[in-house]
């Protein structure tokens, strides 16, 4: 409170001094002079020099400031409480908009320091009895995030007030994060916090899952038993794509994510186990996109626009004539039992979902191995190998082929800013199933209707050109058109003649091959013992006399060589001697240029007929993938989407 002057009111000829707020101070007028008041100007409190006994004292608020006010018989003394103990602050939260939480502070004002300390000790004792709240964490921050200042101003104070100590690591290179996790002792921390987008979150979760399998001695070869993550993950959305954070918190909000972390609210989530066509492990992921979805993610990662405009630009670009096209693919999948429902059943996954049974108790957080109860078989390892599929039985495997504009696999509903209820509204987070969505080739107008339904309350899967399946295993084999036709510029007539001559020599040597026992002097004995018969002396003499002599053999061979016929080439012949001229050098250089030009045209054409898989937001170099879902393998801090989540009134996709 700014004090410009002090009013001294004369009562019974004794002054009573006190500070009054400027808003309540009477304006100087003739009435003040008639009432016996006089005004003096002073910047400090006027105190009476007469020592008197205080009648009353207390703490009062004046213009949002606290003052210690003492009442004497002749005057009032007011002392500012600025810089002194005022009371106790309780940090809590209040529910704001749908799924959002707001940080709130409750101030308990009391002048006694002993009373405040007693309250603080009792409250701390109660908080110590609450389990599950993290106290020591490892925090990975995306150094390139544009919301770093917002994180420092809003998130750090929440962590500090909750007593959460974090070891911070800022990284621009994803490889350094992976190396750090591989050498980390996870038992030193209560949780791993990730402040970034889906790319950083997927990298951290994938590295931890790989570390768990390696430490548990489990080979990543598609076996049935896996080790779950032994440490919870906290996700703070700070990237361009925050689908994972939106899934576990129900909203894309940093403060809500921080409050869910410090209060220890957890949920379990499924994860996808991805292998490629060579039956080798590739990655852990939460979703997979091929076709239109991968085109969008590629444009979003390359764009330098703001976060709000990147997806609008990417969708508009993906609907252009050069990008909007179907891709051939063969899909083999194993559907789950009918008790798990189907993508079109309309059952959404909300907090306390009975289908997921998300009771915050992971089946493998105690270090035991997890075996998926839905499957007792070796999962699909080769998408185009029927022998791998026969293990599950003929009736269990379904196959579909076609040209698809978009192929999507979801282990979670995958909500985002463009689709608040999820790209797959009726997928559950922890039911041990995944939803496969196949969008057949159709007109651009119809496909835009499908996109718009992702952002409103209608079911985007309810179209005749959309197929959806709830499966436990699925494999994809990309179907490409007939091979590339190009001129073979590596052909050489001389090299071809040499190759033919070598082939004739090898075939002639094969026809005249003689089996010889490589035992030196025991050749004859080995032959006799192999016959099993005893030869008499007469037989021996007869057999020896009947054998032709060495000279006779040589004469016969010379006569045979003198017979007319094709002349045999010696085995030492390698190639026809040819002089390399300047013309040959120029011809080879010209052919190399033509080959490079044709190769560029081949790569360009392959881009038109083949897309790229995106696992979350990470591109995948493989085309034939096999995906299996693992139930309740990852634990996150969050509550998911609340049961009172409202459906959007207007569609959130941009008008294109």
From TrEMBL:
Residues 132-279 form the DAGKc domain. Residues 15-39, 530-571 are annotated as: Disordered. One of its GO terms (cellular component) is membrane. PROSITE patterns: DAGK (PS50146). InterPro entries: ATP-NAD_kinase_N, CERK_C, Diacylglycerol_kinase_cat_dom, Lipid_Phosphate_FormReg, NAD/diacylglycerol_kinase_sf. Residues 22-35 have a biased composition (Low complexity). GO terms for molecular function: ceramide kinase activity. Transmembrane segments: none annotated. One of its GO terms (biological process) is ceramide metabolic process. It comes from the Eukaryota. PANTHER family: CERAMIDE KINASE-LIKE PROTEIN, SPHINGOSINE KINASE. This is CERKL. It comes from Bugula neritina. The lineage of its organism: Eukaryota, Metazoa, Spiralia, Lophotrochozoa, Bryozoa.
């Amino acid at each position: 409170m700014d004090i410009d002057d002090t009013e001294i009111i004369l009562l019974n000829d004794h002054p009573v001094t006190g500070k009054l707020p400027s808003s309540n101070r009477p304006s100087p007028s003739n009435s003040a002079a008639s009432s016996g008041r006089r005004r003096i100007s002073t910047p400090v409190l006027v105190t009476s020099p007469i020592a008197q006994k205080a009648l009353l004292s207390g703490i009062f608020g004046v213009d949002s400031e606290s003052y210690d006010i003492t009442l004497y018989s002749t005057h009032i003394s007011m002392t500012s409480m600025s810089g002194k103990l005022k009371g106790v602050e309780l940090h809590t939260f209040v529910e704001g908009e749908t799924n959002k939480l707001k940080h709130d502070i409750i101030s308990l004002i009391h002048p006694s320091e002993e009373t405040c300390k007693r309250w603080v000790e009792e409250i701390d004792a109660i908080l110590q009895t609450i389990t599950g709240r993290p106290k020591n964490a490892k925090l990975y921050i995306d150094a390139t995030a544009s919301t770093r200042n917002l994180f420092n101003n809003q998130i750090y104070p929440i962590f500090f007030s909750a007593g959460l100590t974090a070891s911070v690591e800022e990284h621009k290179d994803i490889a350094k994060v992976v190396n750090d996790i591989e050498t980390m002792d996870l038992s030193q921390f209560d949780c791993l916090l990730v402040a970034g987008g889906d790319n950083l979150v997927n990298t951290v979760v994938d590295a931890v899952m790989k570390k768990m399998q390696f430490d548990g001695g489990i080979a990543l070869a598609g076996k049935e038993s896996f080790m779950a993550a032994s440490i919870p993950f906290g996700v703070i959305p700070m990237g361009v794509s925050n689908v994972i954070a939106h899934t576990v918190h129900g909203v894309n909000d940093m403060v809500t994510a921080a409050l869910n972390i410090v209060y220890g609210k957890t949920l379990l989530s499924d994860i996808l186990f991805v292998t490629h066509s060579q039956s080798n492990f590739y990655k852990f992921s939460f979703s997979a996109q091929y076709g239109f979805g991968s085109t969008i993610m590629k444009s979003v990662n390359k764009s330098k626009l703001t976060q709000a405009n990147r997806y609008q630009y990417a969708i508009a670009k993906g609907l252009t004539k050069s990008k909007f096209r179907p891709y051939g693919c063969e899909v083999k999948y194993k559907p789950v039992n009918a008790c798990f429902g189907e993508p079109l059943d309309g059952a959404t996954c909300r907090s306390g979902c009975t289908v997921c049974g998300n009771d915050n108790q992971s089946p493998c957080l105690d270090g035991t191995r997890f075996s998926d109860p839905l499957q007792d078989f070796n999962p699909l390892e080769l998408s185009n190998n029927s022998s791998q599929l026969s293990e599950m039985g003929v009736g269990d495997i379904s196959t579909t082929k076609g040209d698809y504009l978009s192929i999507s696999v979801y282990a979670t509903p995958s909500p985002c800013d463009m689709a608040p209820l999820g790209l797959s509204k009726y997928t559950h987070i922890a039911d041990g199933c995944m939803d496969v969505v196949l969008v057949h080739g159709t007109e651009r107008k119809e496909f835009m209707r499908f996109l718009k339904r992702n952002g409103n309350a209608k079911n985007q899967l309810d179209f005749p050109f959309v197929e959806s399946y709830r499966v436990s295993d699925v494999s994809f084999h990309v179907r490409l058109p007939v091979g590339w036709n190009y001129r073979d510029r590596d052909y050489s007539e001389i090299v071809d003649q040499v190759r033919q001559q070598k082939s004739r020599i090898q075939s002639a040597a094969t026809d005249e091959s003689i089996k010889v026992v490589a035992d030196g002097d025991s050749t004859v004995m080995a032959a006799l013992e192999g016959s099993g018969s005893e030869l008499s002396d007469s037989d021996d003499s007869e057999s020896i006399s009947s054998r032709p002599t060495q000279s006779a053999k040589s004469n016969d061979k010379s006569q045979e060589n003198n017979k007319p016929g094709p002349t045999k080439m010696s085995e030492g012949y390698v190639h026809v001697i040819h002089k390399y001229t300047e013309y040959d050098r120029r011809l080879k250089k010209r052919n190399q240029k033509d080959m490079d030009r044709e190769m560029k045209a081949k790569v360009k054409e392959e881009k038109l007929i083949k897309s790229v898989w995106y696992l979350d937001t990470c591109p995948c170099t493989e085309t034939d993938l096999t995906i299996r879902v693992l139930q309740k393998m990852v634990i996150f801090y969050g509550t998911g989407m609340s049961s009172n989540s409202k459906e959007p009134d207007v569609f959130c996709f941009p008008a294109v």
